[in-house]
Structure formats: C-alpha cells, structure tokens
Amino acid sequence: MSQMYDVIRELCRRKGTDVTKMCRALGIPRSTLSELAAGRTKQLTLKHAQPIADYFGVTIGQLAGTEPLEPGSSVCDDAIRDEPIAAYENLKRYLTEQDKEDIVTLIRLRAELNQGRR
C-alpha cells in the first residue's frame, strides 16, 4: 500500500467518509485508488491528486505524504462540540477505547441516516 493511499484513508476517516464515496463525489474512478492501495502505482497524477487535495483542503505535498498533515479531528471530535452530546466531554475519562469507537460508529451511522433524508 502506498503512503499516499494511507494519507487519503486518514483524511477520509477525519471527514467521516470512505474512499469509494470520495471517488464518487469527485468523479474519479475507484479503480484508480484501488491501484494505489494495491501498490501497483505509488502516486496519483495531478489530474486526480489535485481534486482530492482540494476536497480535503490539503496541499499536494500533504496528500503525497511529503509534508505533515495538520493535527485533525475525527467525526466524533467534531460532533462532541454539538450541544446534544456536550456531556460526552465530562464522561470521556471514564470511557474505554471500545466505548469511544462505538460512539464514533453511532455518530457516523446517524450522519449517514441524516444524509439519506435530504
């Protein structure tokens, strides 16, 4: 797997999406990213890399892994700022890693359900 693909997966995680959905949104063939994931290609061409970088608001260097990504938040971190689950901050120290993963999963599922209603 290429470093660029690892960065793209991390950016997708932070945005609460996945590679397939990102490809659909940008009109990039999923096979292009599959080749990158399999290591058959090491980098994307600028034709594909630039729209992905723009989608995530990063530089080409960050996308390629030659520049560090800014510390990012996850979907869960963004969501805990919302009033309905602000109490999560007070409980965070009592939660196990599995609890935190479950919360992230629930937030993602709720977001997907809400997107389907629009």
Question: Biggest sheet, open or closed, and with what strands and sense?
Answer: none
Strand content: under 5%
| Number of helices, counting only DSSP H or I runs of 4 residues or more | 8
Average residue pLDDT: 80
Low confidence ranges: none
Instruction: Provide the CATH topology of the largest domain.
Output: 434 Repressor (Amino-terminal Domain)
Describe this structure as you would to a colleague.
This protein has 118 residues and is an all-alpha fold. It folds into 2 domains: 3-64, 434 Repressor (Amino-terminal Domain) (Orthogonal Bundle); 75-116, no CATH class. The protein contains 8 helices and no strands. The chain starts with a helix and ends with a helix. The mean pLDDT is 80.
